[in-house]
Design a protein that fits this description.
Elements (H helix, E strand, L loop, with lengths): L8 H55 L5 H33 L7 E4 H13 L8 E6 L6 E4 L1 H17 L6 E9 L2 E8 L34 H11 L3 E5 L6 E8 L1
Parallel strand pairs: 2-4
Antiparallel strand pairs: 1-3, 4-5, 5-7, 6-7
Length: about 260
């Protein structure tokens, strides 16, 4: 009878692997909690601005002995603008939560890429937000292809990038929407010649907990700072990619890639 040598190392190895798995799971959970807490801190900070503006406007009106029509006309635009900002920020928070928890919120359909981008561009061009920007459209002839997308969320992705461009450009600056096909990929770019993205910010701008150094400006309409991370979540649902480039001197360009 042949005796086999017992493997005393196997149980130890199993315990070691289990300990490592538990440690990794605990680290991941800790990271999720840390990220959530940072997001809540960022959101709390950004919510204060429109709420304070609304509160101050109401206090001003209440302090007047006699409210004139001129007082109301002077105050209403501020109230409307800050309320709209507040609504958009809340919508951002809700959307990001939905992207994380819902598996059936996307409804894909085959659409012509060129027509989709043209419709989106001309809709934006007619928007008052962009009335003083130099909007340009540059779609290559080879973009006469079909793409499988959720039209609503793909428009939301592009609109978030445009909102970002709007926040970092001034009157007369250019915002260019371009598209071309390379092999089996549709490459969409949105370029502007406004404020640059700093080199230290560039690798982190799609992270939920990261607020770029110059992301908060007086004219910013970027909501709770979640716009670009929402873009990342949307493009991942499309099995695509998003990236950004800036020379750190002037302007930036965002790239969205979709497989055909």
């Amino acid at each position: 009878m042949i005796k086999t040598k017992k493997n005393f190392e196997a149980p130890n190895l199993m315990v070691e692997n289990l300990s490592r798995a538990l440690y990794d799971a605990n680290q991941k959970q800790s990271e999720i909690i840390r990220e959530r807490d940072e997001i809540y801190a960022n959101i709390s900070h950004d919510l204060r601005s429109p709420i304070t503006a609304i509160h101050n406007a109401i206090e001003y009106l209440q302090s007047l002995d006699h409210i004139t029509e001129a007082d109301i006309k002077a105050t209403l635009p501020l109230l409307a603008a800050r309320t709209e900002m507040l609504e958009y920020m809340i919508e951002e928070i809700f959307l990001l939560t939905k992207l994380d928890t819902s598996s059936d919120m996307f409804h894909f359909e085959i659409v012509p890429a060129g027509a989709f981008l043209e419709d989106f561009f001309y809709m934006c061009e007619a928007d008052d937000r962009f009335s003083d920007r130099n909007m340009k459209l540059n779609i290559a002839e080879d973009c006469n292809v079909d793409i499988n997308i959720d039209v609503i969320y793909m428009k939301r992705l592009l609109d978030n990038i445009l909102r970002n461009a709007l926040a970092h450009t001034s009157s007369g600056d250019s915002i260019i929407l371009s598209a071309k096909c390379t092999g089996d990929t549709l490459k969409i770019s949105i370029e502007n010649n406004g404020e640059p993205i700093l080199a230290k910010d560039l690798p982190n701008i799609f992270k939920r907990t990261y607020m770029a150094s110059n992301s908060r400006t007086p004219s910013s309409t970027s909501g709770a700072g979640l716009g670009l991370s929402i873009c990342k979540s949307i493009i991942e649902k499309h099995n695509g990619q998003i990236s950004a480039y800036s020379d750190g001197i002037k302007g930036s360009c965002f790239y969205v890639e979709l497989l055909l």
